[in-house]
C-alpha cells in the first residue's frame, strides 16, 4: 500500500489475523513481546514502532489520525511497516473506553507506550478543553483499560514543558513542576500525576519519559526545524519569534527512541526520566547550524514573542544514564545533517502542508 492510496482504517478486531492464537505474557525483554503504541502513526511514534518491529516484537499501533496535521503525512510515516506481518493498525478514539478495551483484549499487550497527545503550546491557550479531554481524560482511559487487560508496564511520553520558566538549569526530575506556563503543560503534568496515583494503588510499573524538543526525519510539519529547512530549500524566508535568544534542548529522534526502549528496563513502581540532549542551543544558533549544513543563508523575519513560550529548556540526564544506561549520542549538527538529507529525498506529502502551519512556526511542544 502506498501512503497516497485511499484507505479505510478498521478497528483492530478486523485487522488481527493472528489474534486467534493465544500468546502467553513475555517476561524476558529480549524475547518477542506484544507491545501497544498509542500515537504510533505520529513523528516519534512511527520511529518507535519501526524500532520495535526490528527487534521482532508484535506491535499494535493505535492512532486516531487526528486532523491536527494531514492523515497522508501519518500514512507516509507508516509506509514501511503497513504490511509487516507483526504490525497491526487500529484507528480509535482513546477516550472511547469500549473501543480501547476491545483493541487491548484482542491484542493482549505485555507493555504499552502512550505517546498519543494533542500537542502545541499556543493552540492549547485557545482550546484548553480539547487538551484536557485528549491529554488527561484519554490517559485515565488508557490506565484503566491497561489494568483491566493485564498490562504490567506502561511508558508514557511526558514533556519538559512541566518545568515552567523559573527553574535552575539543567532541569532535574526532582525540580518543582507545579507552575505550568500553558494549558498544554498543565495537561502533561496532570497526566504524570494520574500515572503516579495509578502506580501507587495498583501492581503496575509506570515510567514517564520527559521529552525535550525532539527533531529528525518525519518531524511534524509545523515545528521549527522542519519549517526552517523546507523554507530554506525553497529559498523562502523563515520566521523567528522574538530576538532568537531563547533556547531549546534539541534531541534527535533516534536518541529519544533508544531512551524509550531503555525505559522498558526501568525499576518497578513509578519513575520519571529526562530524555534530552543535555545541551541547549538558541534559535539563532539553530539557524546558524542549518545554514552551515545547507551551505546557504537564511532569510529571517522576526515576529513578536508568543504566549506560553519559556526562555529555555535544558535536560539533566544523569538519572537516565545511571538507572537506564541511556545517554544521547547524536549532536545537533549531525542531527541536522541527517534531517536535511532525509528532507531532500522525502515523500512529497511532507511538503504539502497548509493550515494551521501558515499561521506561525512553533519551536516545539516540549
CATH class descriptor of the domain at 34-214 and 252-276 and 314-329: Alpha Beta
Number of helices: 11
**What is the CA-atom radius of gyration, in angstroms?**
20 Å
Identify the CATH architecture of the domain at 34-214 and 252-276 and 314-329: 3-Layer(aba) Sandwich
Element-by-element helix/strand order: EHEHEHEHHEHEEHEEEHEEHEHH
**Helical residues, percent:** 25-40%
> Between the first and last Cα atoms, what is the distance in angstroms?
33 Å
Describe the largest sheet.
7 strands, parallel
How are the strands of the largest sheet arranged?
3-2-1-4-5-6-11
Low-confidence segments:
1-28, 354-363
- Rounded mean pLDDT score: 89
Shape: globular
Q: Got a strand count? A: 13
Main structural class = alpha/beta
Write up what this structure looks like.
It is a single chain. This protein is of the alpha/beta class and 366 residues long. It has a domain at 34-214 and 252-276 and 314-329: Rossmann fold. It contains eleven helices and 13 strands. The chain has helices at residues 43-54, 71-77, 97-107, 121-126, 128-148, 183-201, 224-233, 253-263, 283-294, 318-324, 332-344; strands spanning 34-38, 58-62, 87-90, 111-114, 153-159, 205-211, 214-215, 238-241, 247-248, 251-252, 270-275, 281-282, 300-303. It has a seven-stranded parallel beta sheet with strand order 3-2-1-4-5-6-11, sandwiched between helices. α3 (97-107) packs parallel to α5 (128-148).
